[in-house]
Amino acid sequence: MSVTILQFPGTNCEMDMAYAYKLIGAPYSIVWHKERCLPKDTKLVVVPGGFSYGDYLRSGAIARFSPIMQAVSEFAAQGGYVLGICNGFQILCEARLLPGALKRNEGLHFISQSQKLRVASTSNAFLCHYQQDSEISLPIAHADGCYFIDELSLRTLQANEQILLTYVDNPNGSVANIAGICNERKNVFGLMPHPERAIESLLGGLDGLAMLTSLYERASQR
Fold this sequence. Notes:
The protein has helices spanning about 15-25, 65-75, 85-95, 150-160, 210-220; strands spanning about 1-5, 30, 40-45, 80-85, 100-105, 110-120, 135-140, 145-150, 165, 180, 190. It has about 220 residues and is an alpha/beta fold.
């Protein structure tokens, strides 16, 4: 099986993701956004972070219309695993593959720091290797990371255990301290923190490695 990592004009984390999956031992390919099909052996699609199309209009709003996103939507509808990180999370929300929206941080500042997070649910392929309610630390780097969702939809997320990660000290004003979510089917995941930047002790910690490993392992079983 192969991990397919998307690349848009302005993304800057595709090589970080490639390095992470090389470290795990997973074959991968980087696919340009103008392609209309995913590689046939794709089992996991990763939409990486960066500033697709310079974040014009809204973060992820233009990338959502790139040709490859139709293929990603069809892949997800068939049960394929999709992971969006930072700008990738924004793109998945814009594409309606995940509920809610990401807006400008409370205070209107770009935030770049190591962030404490709480594991809110382990009943999913992304966080199944973690302990419920444990605290981990991952880097964040965003200006539009404030997650918003209406009250009724929030209750649905809570009831279905779709909230994956929450901020210990909310840095951006996100509703209910939400840092990451999944869809109801639990095959599409999105988060603002960067697990690919926490996969080696040299980088300051290993808290992101199990996320990427467990999702790859689960995807390979499909």
